[in-house]
TrEMBL record:
Name the record gives this protein: cysteine desulfurase
Keywords: Iron, Iron-sulfur, Metal-binding, Pyridoxal phosphate, Transferase
The protein's required cofactors: pyridoxal 5'-phosphate
Gene3D superfamilies: 1.10.260.50, Aspartate Aminotransferase, domain 1, Type I PLP-dependent aspartate aminotransferase-like (Major domain)
Organism: Pseudanabaena yagii GIHE-NHR1
Enzyme class: transferase
Length: 377
């Protein structure tokens, strides 16, 4: 029995997406920048996808810029804002950001920028009051992840964004984990820049988008990371990956249609798995009750998270560990450390993320396998 519970890492492309991408590669393979019919067919595929992604966010299609994925989108947001300043300024991120935000901020800090890292509570949440106190006259961007990838905690994006809007500071959110799991409406949420990635909601790897609020960015500016042919309204030069973009568009359209029903289904399965694991005294939940519908996270008091990942893999079940391995050395999860957990607790963390293929039988079997493995510890 094979059970995949690592959708937070990547999700399998939907059959509909694969079928569409195959057809696009056969019949719409022209260069979108070309003026002839072959180019026009490719342009039509791209613009249809732009509308589909915009609809998922309730965004202006003019603000959708296609990228290679979440990492590029995050870098485009932070570095694109930073590059327009001749002298270093001040930027704010949270202490639980994905490395695609954390490392660009670290790079800027090494080059003279002031970076404030907002602390979080034991649930992994940022305090809006802390953000308000951290703003400075030279703050040029705030970036806070919409939902944390390791522990699933959903941030109060509405409150954080409004504080930034009131202070006339652009607000970016890495929504890679949140898109298609919770409703994100950029017309009602004060979001100026938003990153997403197709492979987290059944598109393919290597394609994503950055949403840019046209009104805000016209005022504050955003410098492109790469220069060239001026594609994507000049923000992201390079011949577009037409088939991948078309697949992203279809994945977004299907996600929008299924968002409510799938969220409810996954929440029930998630809560059922929590209940089945509740009697294991040394398995401790992490994160907030206000969390992504498909997401569970724990640490074990005595068992290294990577060992549990391996043991479950032998049983045909895929999960992930929050700890990182570099040059053979196991490092504790930086996220859990920021949340106040000890080194050993942070090393022993695991994450289970459900998806469209997950059934109640999968949940029952996974719980049984975890019980059996931990009974031997």
């Amino acid at each position: 029995m094979q059970i995949y519970l690592d959708h937070g890492a990547t999700s399998p492309a939907r059959p509909e997406v694969i079928e569409l991408m195959t057809e696009v590669m056969r019949s719409q393979w022209g260069n979108p920048s070309s003026l002839h019919a072959w180019g026009e067919r490719s342009t039509m595929a791209i613009e249809r996808a732009r509308l589909q992604v915009a609809s998922l966010l309730n965004a202006d299609p003019e603000g959708i810029i296609f990228t290679s994925g979440g990492t590029e989108s995050d870098n485009m947001a932070l570095m694109g804002i930073a590059r327009q300043y001749r002298t270093p300024q001040h930027m704010i991120i949270s202490s639980v950001e994905h490395s695609a935000v954390r490392l660009p901020a670290q790079y800027l800090e090494q080059h003279g920028w002031e970076i404030t890292r907002l602390s979080v509570d034991r649930d992994g949440k940022v305090s809006p009051q802390d953000l308000g106190r951290s703003l400075r006259p030279n703050t040029v961007l705030v970036s806070v992840i919409a939902a944390q990838n390791e522990v699933g905690t959903i941030q109060p994006i509405d409150k954080l964004g409004q504080i930034c809007r009131n202070a006339n500071v652009p607000f970016h959110t890495d929504a890679v984990q949140a898109i298609a799991k919770i409703d994100i409406n950029v017309q009602t949420l004060p979001i100026d820049l938003l990153s997403l990635s197709a492979h987290k909601f059944y598109g393919t790897q290597g394609i994503g988008a950055l949403y840019i609020n046209p009104l805000i960015i016209q005022k504050h500016g955003l410098v492109p990371l790469n220069l060239g042919g001026g594609q994507e309204r000049g923000y992201r030069s390079g011949t577009q990956a037409v088939a991948a973009i078309a697949g992203l568009g279809l994945a977004a359209e299907l996600a929008a249609k299924e968002l409510m029903s799938e969220s409810q289904r996954l929440t029930k399965l998630r809560d059922r798995l929590y209940a089945l694991l509740d009697d294991i005294p040394d398995l401790v939940p992490t994160g907030s009750s206000d969390r992504l519908p498909h997401h569970l996270s724990f640490y074990h008091k005595y068992l290294d998270g990577r060992r549990l990942v391996r043991e479950l893999n032998y049983a045909g079940i895929a999960i992930s560990s929050g700890s990182a391995c570099s040059s053979g050395a196991i490092e504790p999860s930086a996220i859990l450390l920021a949340m106040g957990y000890s080194d050993s607790e942070a090393r022993n963390s695991i994450r289970l993320t459900l998806g469209k293929s997950t059934t109640e039988a999968d949940i029952e079997w996974t719980a049984l396998a975890i019980h059996q493995i931990l009974s031997r510890v």
